[in-house]
Amino acid sequence: MAITLIEAIFPEAKGWSTVFTGVAKIVDEILLTFKKDGVHARAMDSAHLAMVDLFIPSDAFETYTVMEETNLGIRLDDINNVLKRASKNDKLSISYEEKSNVLSLKFIGQIKREFLINLIELSENTPAMPKLPIEVNAVIIPTALKEAIKDIGTISDYAIFEAEKNVFYIKAKSSRGSVSLEFTKESGYLLEYEIKGDKKVKASYGIKYLEYLTSVADDAVSATLGFSTNAPLKLDYKIPNDVQLTFLLAPRGDEE
């Protein structure tokens, strides 16, 4: 008789759909590691420009049992095709049996629906999370950040993040024109703001990737930007049910 290594129930199936749709913007496949403290996943995109780091704590689940640490490789298209079939009030039941090649996903609602997703072999060499030199930390309303990136995209294919003592700017300039968005605590969109030192901090990032990174903004509780001059961007999201989703994005070296 096969031993069930993983058995868990998440209160909102739609929450998993939000998270994994965002992850799929960066990578096609990912290794989910089920540990006693929760579900971990980290991967880098094929161009080595962006990294995604996911943690769903065990406390976020209604029930969570992991007999032993287990690594499961999944194609994100496969899991997302299933998760998008979740109804608004569905719970998500997750289970995996020892030496099985499938992950069971059940929607618990008016009708119980079970889907079996075929697993894939993936390397267990998870990339290390780099320690970044953060000079600016800004907690911003997620939807405001998403709309700002859309505004920048009308003018340029990259955005300049610029921080001064009490003001955070997102700017762009190209042959089409220029645009500047100003965020302050007084505006209500910048919730917390900290900058180290008195010097201006400035870095630029590609719009296409920023659009990927802000795709989860509508469902996020908060977004925290961390960056330094000409250094990678760290974008931390808090998702409902204490889900933590972090993106890293390499800077662009050329500014117009």
What features would you describe in this structure?
This protein has 256 residues and is mainly β. The chain has two domains: 115 residues, Proliferating Cell Nuclear Antigen (Box); 114 residues, Proliferating Cell Nuclear Antigen. The chain is built from four helices and 18 strands. The strands form three sheets. Strands 6-2-3-4-18-17-16-10-14 form a nine-stranded antiparallel sheet. The protein has a five-stranded antiparallel sheet with strand order 5-1-7-8-9, covered by helices on one side. Helix 3 packs antiparallel against helix 4. It starts with a strand and ends in a 7-residue tail after the last strand.
List keywords for this structure.
single chain, DNA polymerase processivity factor activity, mainly beta, nine-stranded antiparallel beta sheet, elongated, DNA polymerase sliding clamp, 2 domains, 256 residues, Proliferating Cell Nuclear Antigen, five-stranded antiparallel beta sheet, 4 helices
What is the secondary structure topology, with strand pairs?
Elements: E1 4-10, H1 13-23, E2 29-35, E3 38-44, E4 50-57, E5 63-66, E6 70-75, H2 76-83, E7 91-97, E8 102-108, E9 113-118, E10 136-140, H3 142-153, E11 158-163, E12 168-174, E13 177-183, E14 190-195, E15 201-206, H4 207-213, E16 222-227, E17 233-239, E18 243-249
Antiparallel strand pairs: 1-5, 1-7, 2-3, 2-6, 3-4, 4-18, 7-8, 8-9, 10-14, 10-16, 11-12, 11-15, 12-13, 16-17, 17-18
Keywords: DNA replication, DNA-binding
InterPro entries: DNA_clamp_sf, Pr_cel_nuc_antig, Pr_cel_nuc_antig_C, Pr_cel_nuc_antig_N
GO molecular function: DNA binding; DNA polymerase processivity factor activity
